[in-house]
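Hi there,

I know you've been waiting on this one. I reran it after we fixed the sequence typo, so this is the corrected version. Both the input and the resulting structure follow.
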Amino acid sequence: MQNSQPHAALLVSPGMGHLIPALELGKRMATHHGFHVTVFIVAEDHASTSLFKSPNNYPENLDVALLPPVDISAIVGPDASLTVKMIFIMRQSLPLLRSEILAMKIRPTMLIVDIFGTEAFTIADEFEMLRFWISLT
């Protein structure tokens, strides 16, 4: 299915320092630049991110999709650094992102990620999406 409106997907790493700037970018792209935007939030837990899923706060052409938390306890020990944990959380979330994009009626034409999301570029390549890395902090 084709749509003339550009459709951007933003993949957001866990943490408010990533989430809030990404949502602001999505709002601006939707409001000021005519994009349809889907923000994929990689959750550490549902409690910390579920409040951002409320559509009342967003323009009508901005969607928020909460990817379920992943369990990395068998891969990464409790003493691992936050950076290492983020890398593995994002890596384990890739199949969930791929499934979400595959299920969309109108797929995004571009994927925007932060520093922890660059492994998702393989999914962007698979779906022939433009790909961008940005600093959200």
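Quick highlight: The chain has one domain: 7-49+59-133.

Best,
R. S.
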